[in-house]
Amino acid sequence: MTENCFECKNKIEGHDLEQMKNCITKMSDSLESVKGVQTDLKKITENEAIDQFVNTKIGEPSRMGSK
């Protein structure tokens, strides 16, 4: 069974050692970039936290759905 590389879209069987290193490095960099964006998306600002606290106290549904 032949599979294609996610990075260069060529067959993995045809990769030499240098091409394999390059593709893995590029995929690793892409994953680190995605990880950084996910971390930024998880951060809650001070204003969001205060709004959430106030909305919870007055019975408004949270941004993640009502509890």
Q: Which structural class matches the secondary elements? A: mainly alpha
Oligomer: single chain
User: Helix count, per DSSP?
Assistant: 2
Mean pLDDT: 81
How many strands, what sense, and barrel or not for the largest sheet? none
Sequence of secondary-structure elements: HH
Low-confidence stretches: none
Distance between the termini: 49 Å
- Residue share in β-strands: under 5%
Number of distinct beta strands: 0
Please state the overall shape, judged from the principal axes of the Cα atoms. Answer: rod-shaped
* Residues in helix, %: 55-70%
Rg, please?
A: 22 Å
Keywords for this entry:
0% strand, 67 residues, single chain, mainly alpha
Question: If you had to describe this structure to a student in words, what would you say it looks like?
Answer:
The chain is 58% helix and 0% strand. It has 67 residues and is mainly alpha-helical. The longest helix is centred in the middle third of the chain and has 26 residues, at 17-42. The chain is rod-shaped and about 60 Å long. It starts with 16 loop residues before the first helix and ends in a 9-residue tail after the last helix. The mean pLDDT is 81.
Set down the secondary structure blueprint.
Blueprint: H1 17-42, H2 46-58
Summarize the structure.
The chain is an all-alpha fold. 58% of the residues lie in helices and 0% in strands. The protein is rod-shaped and about 60 Å long.
